[in-house]
Structure formats: C-alpha cells, structure tokens
Amino acid sequence: MTKKSMARLQRDEAKERIENSLKTNTNWDDIVHLENTTRQLIASIIYVGNQSRHPDVIQNYVNSDIADRCMKLLAQDILRMSSNFEAIAAKHAGKKGNAPTQEEYMDSVGIYQEYCSLVEEIQSVVLPTVNQLNEEIGMAKERLQNNNTDSNLTPEQDPNVVTDVVLKD
Q1: pLDDT (tens digit, 9 = 90+) per residue, 14-41?
Q2: Would you say the C-alpha torsion 80, 70, 40, 144 has a positive or negative sign?
C-alpha cells in the first residue's frame, strides 16, 4: 500500500467536508426564512403607503408637495420591489430542507445573495423615502389632532383638563 501525499490527504479532507455540509445544510429553510423576513419588510412599507393615502391625513399634510412626491416615489418603488421579490421567490418555490447537490447548493447561495441585494436596495433607496413620508404623516396626524381639539368644550368636557383634583393645605 502506498502512502498518500499531504496534498491528497488535504483534498480528501476537503471533499469529505463538502459532502458532510451537503448532508447537513439547511439552505432552503434559511432562504424561506429570509423570504418571510423580506416579505414582512415590504408589507411594512406598503402599510406606510396605505397610511399616507388616508383622506384625513391627506387633508392635513403640512408639506403636501413633499408628501405627494414621496407617495409617487413609494408607489413606484413598491411595484418594482414586489416584482423583484416575486421573481426571486419563484426560483425556490417548493424547496425546503437541505440542498443535496453542489449545483443546488450554489443555486441557493445565489438566491440568498439576490435577497440580500434586494434588502440592501430597500434600505438604501426606499427607506429614506418611507422615513420622510412617515415624518409627513406624523405632522399631518398632529395637525389633525390639533384641529379636532374643540375649544368650545368646558373644562369638564375636555379630556385634557383635570377637574376633580382637590388640593390640601
């Protein structure tokens, strides 16, 4: 029997590590988790978009031009994000568990990178618009609340006035 060279031993060890990782990886499950997390991020952005279109909020925007521009940008971004998201999700539909072959393993790594790129794009491009729109929504809601405060209320009717406190000397 011949003695194996050090290079051969290292190659055999690397091959065995790869085979073991193919048996024990959870790539598809990890990608499904990343898909769900990305879906929640997109849903939260859509929620902000829906809040921005509420009639009471629209009537009370302080900077209506900025809010309008942000809503238009956000609508375009949501359409683009959603189509990109659905295209990525279609690539791994129905897959779960481990990636049993090197080809599937590399496909799962590529899909993971696509999700990461999408999330990075959302964070760098979309979230600044969402933050600005949130600020406009907050100012509109504050303005709405201030407009709804009725100055004709007596102190007993006004919920912001405490009337039943008795001070002791």
Answers
A1: 777 766 666 767 888 999 999 999 999 9
A2: negative
